[in-house]
């Protein structure tokens, strides 16, 4: 298995000349890059939006000079992945690779599309995605090894977001099918994006508003604890579609019989049941983590606080909650990442959100429309996870260095 | 002065503290000693009302503590527990400032007090004020715990096994430091321990508890010479008794006039230390010096033995 020369020679077998260091993960990734570069299509060309397309290798997808330049850079990154040891160099190489193939796929779209043809569609193909995956893996591995602090990770996220914004705003991707789908429905894209965020963040906020006091009650009153956790555990096991179904009847009844509810836009289908379902799914992580966080506050700390004359309220806000905060935030992180994904399902019952494009796209067999809904969802979840992880680290004051 | 009058505590049918009464004078250290489960902690926690007594009352300077609101009472009484319970999310300075902040002291006064206490406990403010508890050694955490309890200048300090998690070497030094600080500030202390040596080292008076009852409350010498019950005698340890006695009396009390050869012993040393010196140097007698180094007499093995017998 161990065929790669390793840095440390076995005892008793002195190495006479320095062995070349080959990175094991890097070698696998380099193989992936080679496969992607020479054997997989870089873009897919289709005569129109829904017919199946034909793949183009990178050499055919760009003008000769551009193709050569891209291949040189990509091979350079692969070489770095195999040979370079310093994580910072590996990160720089991966970033450069991403910085080249993302604009390249945009230019490729313009190059492959016949002049004046407005029906033709060009999308990134498996080769592009494999390259992006390979570079992302190198970058993620390097970032892990660099052990950035919370601020470092936020800055890295900011740089990535800035690069993406630059790419999209510069128009470099405008010839890609994905951006054509966007251009055709820019207005509804932003409306659904707002709705998506509102569903995810709103239900999270509601879950915090209800879940924090519920968790506190469960912590203080042991008899309540199991009842609360079991009740919420049952909710968690209901599949989302089934939960929507369960909610249709009572909400429909409410809308029909309570004028105020109808006035607020509550109906059996639409945003209301989606919001309520997300809210219910969010409760368990918030409540359970609040209980766990409060439960792990050391007993002698509470005893000392009581002995010094901190009132119940002062103990809660100055000692118990600050010490439980990292665990509570970990629960909120779970909820936010989960909700940003789950909110996609809301579109199924007319609740809106980015899922609208996913399901429209599936209906029309238009994969780029699916991506228009799916990619921003993934990016949002990813960013939310990184931001909340950083906040959790920042709140762990005095816990470690 | 604190007066403990007929305190009792029951949990269900289980009597944990049974009709305990004693008085601690101003500026005295009373040590409550006994085996685990004797009810020591419960007794201590009834003084600051972390535990509500079923019967009896506690008077501080004549005032019944039941008439003072709980939190206000605790602001006036320092409290140190075995694990210290330092707030892990707060710096050393913030920890020490806890009660002054609750009392609404202004920031300058708090800062000055924190610095004063860090100095008193030999913790350099520049180095330690901004550290977090987990960055401190056990001995440093202990000092911060005591400093925090003393921050608002309480007249009474309650300590529940405050040296219990220190290793023996640091423990002795920490006990000496506490004694020095207590003598300087004049704070009244009630301290709980299961360590008899600690009780004799620190206590002006010792309360021996067993099975929820107070068996005897007396000075260390009385406890040795007139144990009230066999259990007290057993706890004190018959074999150790003569040495404990000698450690309660200073050279002053057994000094004889005259001269002796050798390294002088200071007059304030205990007879136990003097005997150790005599044995170590293989001498029958040694000169005695006062604090300024002037020779003022001699101390002899015979003199110490005579003195040790007459006490018993
Ligand atoms: N809150 C409580 N509920 C029931 N029993 C208790 C409680 N607190 C203490 N006890 C019991 O009271 C007895 C004395 O406890 P404690 O005062 O802590 O003893 P010590 O400090 O001398 O070891 C023990 O047997 C203990 O189990
Ligand atoms: Mg105890």
What would you say this structure looks like, in words?
The complex is a heterodimer of chains A (401) and B (312). With 401 residues, chain A is an all-alpha fold. Chain A has two domains: 3-177, no CATH class; 186-400, MetI-like fold (Orthogonal Bundle), CATH 1.10.3720.10. Chain A is 73% helix and 3% strand. Chain A is built from 16 helices and three strands. Chain A has helices at residues 24-39, 58-61, 64-83, 87-112, 126-146, 150-169, 177-184, 186-220, 222-237, 240-257, 259-263, 271-295, 299-307, 312-342, 355-363, 367-395; strands at residues 43-46, 54-56, 121-124. A three-stranded antiparallel sheet of chain A has the order 2-1-3. By secondary structure, chain B is an alpha/beta fold. Chain B has two domains: 2-237, 3-Layer(aba) Sandwich (Rossmann fold); 244-307, CBS domain Like, CATH 3.90.1280. Chain B is built from 14 helices and 13 strands. Chain B has helices spanning 40-47, 70-75, 92-96, 98-102, 107-120, 125-128, 138-150, 168-185, 196-202, 220-225, 230-236, 241-246, 271-281, 301-311; strands spanning 2-11, 14-24, 29-34, 55-60, 63-64, 77-80, 156-160, 188-193, 205-210, 213-218, 265-266, 285-289, 295-300. Chain B has a six-stranded mixed sheet, sandwiched between helices. In chain B, strands 2-1-4-5 form a four-stranded antiparallel sheet, with helices on one face. In chain B, helix 8 links the parallel strand 7 (156-160) and strand 8. The relative contact order of chain B is 0.12. The mean pLDDT of chain B is 92. At the A-B interface, helix 13 and helix 14 of A face helix 2, helix 4 and helix 7 of B. The site of adenosine-5'-diphosphate (ADP) has 10 residues of chain B, from helix 1. Magnesium ion (MG) binds next to helix 1 of chain B.
């Amino acid at each position: 298995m161990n065929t790669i020369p390793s840095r440390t020679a076995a005892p008793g077998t002195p190495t006479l000349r320095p062995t070349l260091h080959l990175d094991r993960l890097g070698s696998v990734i380099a193989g992936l890059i080679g496969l992607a570069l020479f054997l997989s299509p870089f873009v897919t060309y289709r005569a129109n939006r829904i017919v199946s397309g034909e793949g183009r290798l990178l050499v055919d997808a760009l003008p000769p000079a551009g193709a050569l330049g891209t291949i040189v850079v990509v091979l350079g990154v692969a070489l770095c992945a195999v040979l370079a040891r310093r994580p910072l160099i590996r990160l720089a190489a991966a970033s450069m690779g991403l910085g080249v193939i993302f604009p390249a796929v945009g230019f490729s779209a313009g190059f492959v599309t016949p002049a004046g043809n407005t029906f033709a569609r060009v999308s990134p193909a498996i080769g592009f995605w494999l390259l992006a995956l390979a570079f992302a893996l190198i970058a993620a591995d390097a970032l892990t090894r660099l052990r950035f602090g919370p601020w470092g990770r936020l800055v890295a996220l900011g740089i990535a977001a800035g690069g993406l914004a630059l790419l999209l705003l510069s128009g470099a991707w405008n010839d890609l099918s994905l951006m054509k789908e966007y251009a055709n429905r820019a207005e509804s894209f932003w409306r659904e994006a707002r709705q998506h965020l509102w569903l995810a963040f709103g239900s999270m906020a509601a879950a915090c508003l209800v879940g924090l006091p519920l968790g506190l009650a469960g912590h203080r009153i042991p008899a309540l604890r199991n009842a609360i956790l079991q009740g919420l555990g049952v909710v968690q096991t209901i599949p989302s579609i089934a939960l929507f179904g369960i909610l249709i009847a009572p909400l429909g009844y409410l809308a029909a019989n309570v004028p105020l509810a109808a006035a607020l836009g509550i109906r059996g289908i639409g945003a209301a049941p989606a919001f309520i379902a997300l809210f219910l799914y969010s409760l368990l992580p918030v409540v359970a983590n609040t209980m766990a966080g409060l439960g792990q506050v050391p007993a002698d700390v509470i005893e000392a606080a009581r002995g010094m004359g901190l009132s119940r309220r002062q103990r809660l806000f100055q000692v118990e909650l600050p010490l439980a905060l990292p665990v509570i935030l970990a629960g909120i992180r779970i909820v936010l990442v989960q909700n940003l994904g789950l909110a996609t399902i809301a579109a199924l019952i007319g609740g809106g959100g980015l899922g609208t494009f996913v399901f429209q796209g599936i209906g029309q067999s238009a994969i780029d429309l699916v991506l228009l809904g799916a990619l921003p969802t993934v990016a949002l979840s990813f960013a939310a996870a990184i931001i909340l992880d950083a906040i959790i680290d920042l709140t762990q004051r005095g816990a470690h260095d | 002065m604190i007066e403990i009058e007929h305190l009792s505590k029951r949990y269900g049918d289980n009597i944990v503290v049974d009709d305990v009464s004693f008085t601690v004078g101003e500026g005295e250290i009373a040590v409550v000693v006994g085996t685990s489960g004797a009810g020591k902690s419960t007794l201590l926690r009834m003084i600051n009302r972390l535990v509500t007594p079923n019967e009896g009352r506690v008077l501080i300077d004549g005032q019944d503590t039941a008439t003072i609101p709980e939190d206000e009472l605790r602001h006036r009484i320092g409290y140190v527990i075995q694990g210290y319970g330092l707030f892990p999310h707060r710096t050393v300075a913030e920890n020490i400032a806890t009660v002054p902040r609750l009392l609404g002291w202004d920031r300058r006064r708090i800062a000055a007090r924190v610095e004063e206490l860090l100095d008193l406990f030999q913790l350099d403010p520049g180095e330690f004020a901004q550290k977090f508890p987990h960055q401190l050694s056990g001995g440093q955490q202990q000092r911060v715990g005591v400093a925090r309890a003393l921050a608002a200048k309480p007249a009474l300090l309650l300590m529940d096994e405050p040296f219990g998690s220190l290793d023996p070497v640091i423990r002795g030094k920490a006990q000496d430091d506490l004694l020095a600080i207590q003598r300087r500030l004049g704070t009244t202390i009630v301290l709980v321990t299961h360590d008899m040596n600690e009780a004799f080292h620190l206590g002006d008076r010792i309360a021996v508890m067993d099975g929820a009852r107070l068996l005897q409350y007396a000075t260390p010498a009385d406890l040795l010479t007139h144990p009230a019950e066999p259990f007290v005698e057993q706890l004190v340890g018959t074999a150790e008794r003569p040495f404990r006695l000698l450690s309660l009396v200073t050279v002053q009390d057994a000094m004889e006039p005259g001269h002796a050869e050798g390294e002088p012993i200071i007059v304030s040393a205990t007879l136990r230390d003097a005997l150790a010196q005599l044995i170590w140097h293989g001498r029958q007698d040694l000169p005695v010096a006062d604090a300024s180094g002037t020779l003022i007499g001699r101390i002899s093995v015979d003199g110490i033995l005579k003195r040790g017998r007459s006490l018993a």
